[in-house]
Every structure is written in C-alpha cells, then in structure tokens.
Design a protein that fits this description.
Length: 227
Amino acid sequence: MENRILIVEDEEKIARFVELELKHEGYETEKVFDGRTGLERALSGEFDLVLLDVMLPQLNGVEVLRRIRKESDIPIILVTARDAVMDKVSGLDAGADDYITKPFAIEELLARIRVALKRKKNDNISTEKLSWKNVIMDIDRHEVYVGEESVELTNREFELLKMLLQNKNIVLDREKIMDHVCGYDYVGETNVIDVYVRYLRTKIDDRFGLKMISTVRGVGYVIKEEK
Ligand code: CA
C-alpha cells in the first residue's frame, strides 16, 4: 500500500510543488492550508506521515505538533524558515521526528521522508510477531496460530509461551517463569509451571505433532531455535 502523506502548508505554490514531487515518487497526498485543519486531518488516522510547516494561519506548526503528540506518534517532519533556530529547537522538543529548512532541495526532503517512514516501520515490527516453525504468536492481537489453525490459550499459557519464544535457546527455570507468568506475589509451588507446560503441549505439540517445548531435567524449559 502506498504511504499517505499530509502536507500542511499555507503557501500554495510550495504545497503544489511538494505534492507533485511526492506523487511522482508514488506517495498519496493531501494538502491543507491552515493549522487547525492540519491538526484535524493529522489525527484522522488516514496518514502515515505529516509534513508540517511552522508559520501557519490559525494555529502555528509547533502548536499543531504539540497537540498531535498528545494523541498520536505519527511521523512528523517540521518545515522551518531559514535561520529560525528557535523553531527547530522547540519543534524537536515538542516531538518532531525531523525538520527541514526552507528553501530545501526536493531530494533532501524525499530522503528525510524515507528515513522517517522506515524508522516507524521498524518500530512496528519489533513488537509484532513471534514464531517457531509454523507456530505464530501475534502479540498485539493476543492470538496464536499453527499454520492456519487458531489455538485458544488462557492468559497464563499465552504469557508462558511468549516468554519461551522471546528467549529461544535460553533455558528458563521454573522460578523465573513463575515470577513472570504468575506474578511476583504468587504463592504456590513451582510445579504449577509444569502444569501449564503440559497444557501447552496438549494444545500445540500433541495436536499438531510438534516438539516445541523441551524439558531440561532439574532446571526448566526451553524452546530451541529451529534448524
Ligand atoms: Ca508558511
């Protein structure tokens, strides 16, 4: 899907020029010409990045930026006037990802947009999915799949599996697992972990003919990296 960029810029000539170049690069764009509309559109959830001029009617760019940041972490590149050092400083303080100074070379703007979008994408990937062979855990959606089949897990089973998948090849002892899965104030025997492992094995290993969780005798459990 194309990345959608919101251009907030009151100088129509500049806005038109930037839009043309961005479209040429394959981005989808929308232009708005004042701060208030810019704020409203930026928070619509329809964009992947905001190009935000500082000197704007109704609401200046830094103020728009501050208000966006209260609700959204959308990448924002601030467009400042030449030598407006204060704008840059307060802009970055207010949470801009980057800034560019007018007049700018379009290639420089495109490069900064690519970097900001890539950074955002990497952030998303880091919390996305864990997997082992065809076992896939979607953390955000709290779902586990083996191939196409969905597996129902209780919260504790899910937390246990997540911990093992996040620590592949590291043997986790029962104490550590229990602290994490049951909470530090849990009072009980560590063999409760053996019970959860057995549930997981029934739901995943036995059902799908896998050997995902290995027992390390006298210590605990590990999921080994697939070879
Ligand atoms: Ca302006």
